[in-house]
Design goal:
The protein is an alpha+beta fold. 29% of the residues lie in helices and 23% in strands.
Amino acid sequence: MRSMWKGSVSFGLVSIPIQLYAATENKNVSLRQVHETDGGRIQYKRFCTIDGEEVPYAEIAKGYELPDGEMVVLTDEDMSELPLASSRAIDVLEFVPLESIDPIHFDKTYYLEPQKNAVKPYVVLRDALQKASHVAIAKVAIRQRETLAILRVHSDVLMMTTMLWPDEVRVPDFGFLHDDPPQVRPQELTMAGSLIDSLSEPVFEHEKYTDSYREALEAMIEAKAAGNETTKPKAVGAKADVVDLMEALQASVSEAKKSRKPSTAKKATAAKKPASGKRTPKSA
């Protein structure tokens, strides 16, 4: 794993220097958009809708569109002036039971690794959290965005899960919630309860579930590759430039040959003319 962020866990007067790692990874099969007929990759260009010119990354800023269509442009300098007190610190605010947090608020999860000189305070915080059966509520800023987070212990490692702000969780507002609820018979509840009991397990075993779609897609790709059902796109980039250069050189040679024929004929004619045709210097 590669560290993506360095900072410290701060609670009370204790500061624990740590490094942050993504705890999860996307296992989806990476597919490219290609031209179906020849397998060539589809590329997209960043261009300005006003002048139609392609825009390099160095000239791209952030913008907020107002209701009337006007755009507020925010440069990197503007963004750097925003107050982010937690830009390099995971600031612990309080400790609460994990059961008191609805999982709908969870976002992304990261592992925290202590730096060499911070192993002892790291272990102290880890063991204290385990003993208290609590998680820490903290504030942190990652990629110029401040967010809430929880610190908890997983496999003897401190783990941080970022959380959504309260106003980022949508309130369900469906029509059936405002209607009178349907009458449910006791027998129906009993049958539903029996179904739940028949499918219940004492613990959740994540390993027994697999991504059957990804497995089938990988098998299809392997079968096509083994059966030579692949498309090799024509060379692009530097090789294409070489082909264009060769064509340009051949065209240049042809033009040079055409332009040399008249001059050669003129030289032959000039050679046949008598010497009197030559200019002689004037006598003094």
